[in-house]
């Protein structure tokens, strides 16, 4: 078992000077964004792992705190007794690497010959000039940090889940809440924001105090679970540090689909095509997504591309995720065995306690990680696998692929296991059943397509992974040099 935090979120006592300062501090850091009409771009659903949660879950655009109960969720004769949630951090700033590339592109636009008023080929506005003067507000210190919108993502998710599963997220269960997080600051802060959302659910209208004032330990860091890929030598050697592992990504960058976009963008921005490359095109596309996600602004960067361009750029992003985190190499998914097995150890423990008529010691387990945490696990479980692998050469054939990372792991994405104790109305027989939710929608079983599974049946389906997928063996480098297995 891995160390976890245990929380007790109490009601604040009468205001004191110390508490008042804490509340004011919380207000400055954690206040809700003012509600406003959301900016929507035609490109919104093509941003891959940079997609807003509400664009993958459109019903949330107008009512982000209202629970969306999937009609497939179990109700009659079944009581949820444990919930294990894997949650990707909320919306974040771009990384320092992405910011440097954006500065490079911005510099190209500012270096164009000054003076004459230009128009594009159709006689329209000079988009390059508009972008040269568009505020470049990103700074190196941001480097993937959680933004206020990301905290809001977490608070609202917490409120929806607490409304959906009130028995599990009751105030009485706060003392048994478990939190685990990646060491990355954006994940630690996501866990804290989630707790504040739970606090607000039970104390509506009151500002959430700091986590310390909730009598709650901060989330416990466990990178062996949440960043298992950093601890798997075979993955690091054969994929992460292997220059040829992403062959299809690099080949697609120089392929006809990307080269068409390259020429088109060069003409639109009126810069020499030789000054551009696929990486700069991609960072321009993602800048549209960052402005939209962070500031709720549709910036001129979005006007550089149309939906046909967006589909190609989405495929480029999906290729990277497929070959580095998904089905491209067997080790991508097998490196997540430690996390998969830990989930079932928690479920086993809850089943055993219920059978002994004992209270479940951990009714809610919350684990905060990354897209890179969720994608390998979902691949290990057999989800979103296409008949043919994604390659640099079958873009058109993969237009209707299952593996679309923006639909699977947008910001704040979540994979939830709900364990139910069910009583059969006709017989005294008791059963344990499991439902899985992906981004708050019931996820049918990968092997049966049923929306609910008997717990023993689910374990039996995954018995190979549960019994024989030993992380130390999976991640051990072979004694002879051979290439990674491709699927």
From TrEMBL:
GO terms for molecular function: acid phosphatase activity; bisphosphoglycerate 3-phosphatase activity; inositol phosphate phosphatase activity. The keyword Acyltransferase does not apply. Disulfide bonds join 78-422, 288-302. It is found in: Cell membrane. SUPFAM superfamilies: Phosphoglycerate mutase-like (SSF53254). It is an enzyme of class 3 (hydrolase). InterPro entries: His_Pase_clade-2 (IPR000560), His_PPase_superfam (IPR029033), Histidine_acid_Pase_euk (IPR016274). Keywords: Cell membrane, Disulfide bond, Glycoprotein, Hydrolase, Membrane, Signal. GO terms for cellular component: plasma membrane. It catalyses: (2R)-2,3-bisphosphoglycerate + H2O = (2R)-2-phosphoglycerate + phosphate; 1D-myo-inositol 1,2,3,6-tetrakisphosphate + H2O = 1D-myo-inositol 1,2,3-trisphosphate + phosphate; 1D-myo-inositol 1,2-bisphosphate + H2O = 1D-myo-inositol 2-phosphate + phosphate; 1D-myo-inositol 1,2,3-trisphosphate + H2O = 1D-myo-inositol 2,3-bisphosphate + phosphate. Its EC number is 3.1.3.62, 3.1.3.80. Belongs to the histidine acid phosphatase family. MINPP1 subfamily. This is Multiple inositol polyphosphate phosphatase 1.
